[in-house]
Structure to design on (172 residues):
Protein backbone atom coordinates (compact mmCIF):
# COMPACT_ATOMS: atom_id res chain seq x y z
CA UNK A 1 0.00 0.00 0.00
CA UNK A 2 1.57 3.30 -1.13
CA UNK A 3 0.49 6.86 -0.44
CA UNK A 4 1.49 10.09 -2.10
CA UNK A 5 3.98 12.08 -0.03
CA UNK A 6 6.09 15.20 -0.44
CA UNK A 7 9.67 14.31 -1.53
CA UNK A 8 11.15 15.74 1.70
CA UNK A 9 9.51 12.96 3.76
CA UNK A 10 11.25 10.15 1.92
CA UNK A 11 13.82 8.02 3.79
CA UNK A 12 16.28 6.32 1.39
CA UNK A 13 19.62 4.51 1.38
CA UNK A 14 20.97 6.21 -1.76
CA UNK A 15 24.06 4.00 -2.18
CA UNK A 16 22.10 0.82 -1.66
CA UNK A 17 18.77 1.33 -3.37
CA UNK A 18 19.58 1.42 -7.09
CA UNK A 19 22.83 -0.51 -6.86
CA UNK A 20 21.42 -3.46 -4.90
CA UNK A 21 17.66 -3.43 -5.33
CA UNK A 22 17.52 -1.99 -8.85
CA UNK A 23 14.46 -0.16 -10.19
CA UNK A 24 12.17 -0.07 -13.19
CA UNK A 25 12.37 2.99 -15.37
CA UNK A 26 9.13 3.36 -17.32
CA UNK A 27 9.14 5.64 -20.36
CA UNK A 28 6.75 6.19 -23.26
CA UNK A 29 3.30 7.62 -22.70
CA UNK A 30 1.70 6.07 -25.76
CA UNK A 31 3.43 2.74 -25.50
CA UNK A 32 5.02 2.53 -22.04
CA UNK A 33 7.95 0.19 -21.53
CA UNK A 34 9.69 -0.89 -18.29
CA UNK A 35 13.51 -1.15 -18.24
CA UNK A 36 15.70 -2.17 -15.29
CA UNK A 37 18.21 0.43 -14.09
CA UNK A 38 20.87 0.51 -11.40
CA UNK A 39 22.76 3.67 -12.29
CA UNK A 40 21.41 7.03 -11.17
CA UNK A 41 20.63 9.02 -8.08
CA UNK A 42 18.50 11.41 -6.09
CA UNK A 43 19.21 15.02 -5.16
CA UNK A 44 18.64 18.70 -5.68
CA UNK A 45 19.28 20.59 -8.91
CA UNK A 46 18.05 24.01 -9.89
CA UNK A 47 16.40 24.11 -6.41
CA UNK A 48 14.14 21.22 -7.36
CA UNK A 49 13.99 17.57 -6.28
CA UNK A 50 15.57 15.57 -9.09
CA UNK A 51 15.91 11.89 -10.02
CA UNK A 52 18.83 11.11 -12.34
CA UNK A 53 18.88 8.10 -14.67
CA UNK A 54 21.61 7.08 -17.15
CA UNK A 55 20.47 5.38 -20.34
CA UNK A 56 22.58 4.03 -23.20
CA UNK A 57 21.51 5.05 -26.74
CA UNK A 58 21.06 1.38 -27.71
CA UNK A 59 18.06 0.98 -25.36
CA UNK A 60 14.51 1.22 -26.69
CA UNK A 61 13.89 3.32 -23.57
CA UNK A 62 16.35 5.91 -24.91
CA UNK A 63 14.15 6.53 -28.00
CA UNK A 64 11.04 6.73 -25.81
CA UNK A 65 12.64 9.29 -23.48
CA UNK A 66 13.84 11.37 -26.41
CA UNK A 67 10.33 11.43 -27.90
CA UNK A 68 8.34 11.96 -24.68
CA UNK A 69 10.38 13.59 -21.90
CA UNK A 70 8.68 12.00 -18.89
CA UNK A 71 9.34 8.86 -16.87
CA UNK A 72 8.51 7.00 -13.70
CA UNK A 73 11.07 5.22 -11.53
CA UNK A 74 9.72 2.28 -9.55
CA UNK A 75 11.21 0.15 -6.75
CA UNK A 76 9.66 -3.29 -6.37
CA UNK A 77 9.56 -5.84 -3.53
CA UNK A 78 12.30 -8.49 -3.53
CA UNK A 79 9.86 -11.11 -4.79
CA UNK A 80 9.93 -9.33 -8.20
CA UNK A 81 13.65 -9.94 -8.79
CA UNK A 82 12.80 -12.22 -11.70
CA UNK A 83 10.67 -9.50 -13.30
CA UNK A 84 13.59 -7.06 -12.94
CA UNK A 85 15.96 -9.55 -14.54
CA UNK A 86 13.59 -9.95 -17.48
CA UNK A 87 13.14 -6.19 -17.92
CA UNK A 88 16.93 -5.81 -17.77
CA UNK A 89 17.72 -8.40 -20.41
CA UNK A 90 14.91 -8.17 -22.99
CA UNK A 91 13.98 -5.17 -25.13
CA UNK A 92 10.55 -3.63 -25.40
CA UNK A 93 11.23 -3.41 -29.14
CA UNK A 94 10.27 -7.06 -29.50
CA UNK A 95 8.40 -7.99 -26.31
CA UNK A 96 5.54 -6.73 -24.16
CA UNK A 97 7.54 -6.78 -20.94
CA UNK A 98 4.51 -5.91 -18.78
CA UNK A 99 2.86 -9.11 -19.80
CA UNK A 100 6.01 -11.23 -19.80
CA UNK A 101 7.02 -10.05 -16.31
CA UNK A 102 3.51 -10.10 -14.80
CA UNK A 103 3.51 -6.35 -14.10
CA UNK A 104 0.57 -3.96 -14.12
CA UNK A 105 0.30 -0.26 -14.86
CA UNK A 106 -1.24 2.51 -12.74
CA UNK A 107 -1.96 5.79 -14.56
CA UNK A 108 0.41 8.58 -13.56
CA UNK A 109 -1.16 11.45 -11.60
CA UNK A 110 1.21 14.15 -12.84
CA UNK A 111 2.74 12.58 -15.95
CA UNK A 112 1.32 10.68 -18.93
CA UNK A 113 3.59 7.69 -18.23
CA UNK A 114 2.24 5.00 -15.88
CA UNK A 115 3.74 3.75 -12.63
CA UNK A 116 4.17 0.06 -11.80
CA UNK A 117 1.25 -1.16 -9.66
CA UNK A 118 3.45 -3.57 -7.68
CA UNK A 119 5.98 -0.87 -6.69
CA UNK A 120 6.72 0.04 -3.06
CA UNK A 121 8.17 3.35 -4.16
CA UNK A 122 7.52 5.36 -7.32
CA UNK A 123 8.64 8.71 -8.64
CA UNK A 124 6.81 10.57 -11.39
CA UNK A 125 9.28 12.78 -13.25
CA UNK A 126 9.48 15.30 -16.05
CA UNK A 127 12.82 15.59 -17.85
CA UNK A 128 14.30 19.04 -17.26
CA UNK A 129 17.53 18.44 -19.14
CA UNK A 130 19.71 15.69 -20.56
CA UNK A 131 23.44 15.52 -21.22
CA UNK A 132 25.86 13.05 -22.67
CA UNK A 133 28.62 11.17 -20.90
CA UNK A 134 31.65 12.37 -22.86
CA UNK A 135 34.83 10.24 -22.83
CA UNK A 136 37.08 13.23 -23.46
CA UNK A 137 36.04 14.41 -20.00
CA UNK A 138 37.05 11.16 -18.23
CA UNK A 139 39.76 11.82 -15.65
CA UNK A 140 39.93 8.14 -14.69
CA UNK A 141 40.94 6.04 -17.76
CA UNK A 142 39.40 2.83 -16.44
CA UNK A 143 35.91 4.30 -16.93
CA UNK A 144 36.38 3.55 -20.62
CA UNK A 145 36.13 -0.17 -19.75
CA UNK A 146 32.39 0.30 -19.30
CA UNK A 147 32.09 1.26 -22.98
CA UNK A 148 33.57 -1.41 -25.29
CA UNK A 149 30.84 -0.51 -27.81
CA UNK A 150 31.34 3.25 -27.32
CA UNK A 151 27.73 3.29 -26.17
CA UNK A 152 28.08 6.25 -23.82
CA UNK A 153 25.16 6.99 -21.53
CA UNK A 154 22.90 9.97 -21.77
CA UNK A 155 22.05 11.37 -18.34
CA UNK A 156 18.40 12.36 -17.92
CA UNK A 157 17.58 14.76 -15.10
CA UNK A 158 13.94 14.44 -14.10
CA UNK A 159 12.13 16.84 -11.84
CA UNK A 160 10.13 14.89 -9.28
CA UNK A 161 6.46 15.77 -9.73
CA UNK A 162 5.07 13.17 -7.32
CA UNK A 163 6.33 10.48 -4.94
CA UNK A 164 4.35 7.39 -3.87
CA UNK A 165 5.86 5.45 -0.99
CA UNK A 166 5.05 2.50 1.26
CA UNK A 167 5.70 2.57 4.99
CA UNK A 168 9.19 1.16 4.39
CA UNK A 169 10.33 4.50 2.96
CA UNK A 170 8.88 6.70 5.71
CA UNK A 171 10.36 7.66 9.07
CA UNK A 172 9.04 5.53 11.94
C1 LIG B 1 20.59 -4.87 -12.89
C2 LIG B 1 20.57 -4.15 -14.20
C3 LIG B 1 20.78 -2.78 -14.23
C4 LIG B 1 20.78 -2.07 -15.44
N1 LIG B 1 20.98 -0.72 -15.43
C5 LIG B 1 20.97 -0.04 -16.59
C6 LIG B 1 21.15 1.39 -16.57
O1 LIG B 1 21.25 2.04 -15.52
N2 LIG B 1 21.19 2.03 -17.79
C7 LIG B 1 21.05 1.35 -18.98
O2 LIG B 1 21.09 1.97 -20.04
N3 LIG B 1 20.85 0.00 -19.01
C8 LIG B 1 20.79 -0.69 -17.84
N4 LIG B 1 20.58 -2.04 -17.86
C9 LIG B 1 20.35 -2.74 -19.14
C10 LIG B 1 18.90 -2.59 -19.65
O3 LIG B 1 17.96 -2.79 -18.60
C11 LIG B 1 18.65 -3.64 -20.76
O4 LIG B 1 19.54 -3.42 -21.82
C12 LIG B 1 17.21 -3.66 -21.26
O5 LIG B 1 16.98 -4.87 -21.95
C13 LIG B 1 16.87 -2.48 -22.16
O6 LIG B 1 15.48 -2.51 -22.39
P1 LIG B 1 14.74 -1.66 -23.54
O7 LIG B 1 15.44 -1.97 -24.84
O8 LIG B 1 13.32 -2.18 -23.49
O9 LIG B 1 14.85 -0.22 -23.15
C14 LIG B 1 20.55 -2.77 -16.66
C15 LIG B 1 20.33 -4.14 -16.64
C16 LIG B 1 20.31 -4.84 -15.42
C17 LIG B 1 20.05 -6.32 -15.40
Amino acid sequence: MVCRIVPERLVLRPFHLLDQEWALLVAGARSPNPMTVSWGGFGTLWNRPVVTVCVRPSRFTFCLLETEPEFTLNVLPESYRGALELCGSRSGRDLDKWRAAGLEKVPGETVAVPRVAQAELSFECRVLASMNVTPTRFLEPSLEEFYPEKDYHRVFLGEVRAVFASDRFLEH
